[in-house]
């Protein structure tokens, strides 16, 4: 299949496919005599995996590692479980950081009732004490 068909099937842009290919996440496709890329079923499967991983916030480096594992079906799936566990730990850390940020913003917001001038604004004054 051509790149446009692959793009349509997966709902991603042609540019994204070329990017993933350039990044080494897809093996180079065959080319026709007129130099068009021709993708096989294995390209579709690998690219669907890449899209799935990107949708769950897995980095390109992590995807590279996971693709190697995907191509070794007799290997243990423990490294994949480890990767997901690491991602869950990372998400917990980000959630904690976001919660701390939310608390700080709420604290700052509570200092200003909105009836004062900029010169009296507690939010602006708080930034000057850093």
UniProtKB/TrEMBL annotation:
Q: Where is the HTH merR-type domain?
A: 1-69
Organism lineage reads as: Bacteria, Pseudomonadati, Pseudomonadota, Betaproteobacteria, Burkholderiales
Q: Which organism is it from?
A: Limnobacter profundi
List the Gene3D superfamilies.
Answer: 1.10.1660.10
Q: Which SUPFAM superfamilies match?
A: Putative DNA-binding domain
Q: What is this protein called?
A: MerR family transcriptional regulator
The cross-references to PROSITE patterns, in alphabetical order and at most eight, read: HTH_MERR_1, HTH_MERR_2
As recorded in UniProt, coiled-coil segments are 81-111
Which InterPro entries does this entry report, sorted A to Z?
A: DNA-bd_dom_put_sf, MerR-type_HTH_dom, MerR_fam
Q: Could you confirm whether the keyword Coiled coil appears in this record?
A: yes
Keyword annotations from UniProtKB, A to Z: Coiled coil, DNA-binding
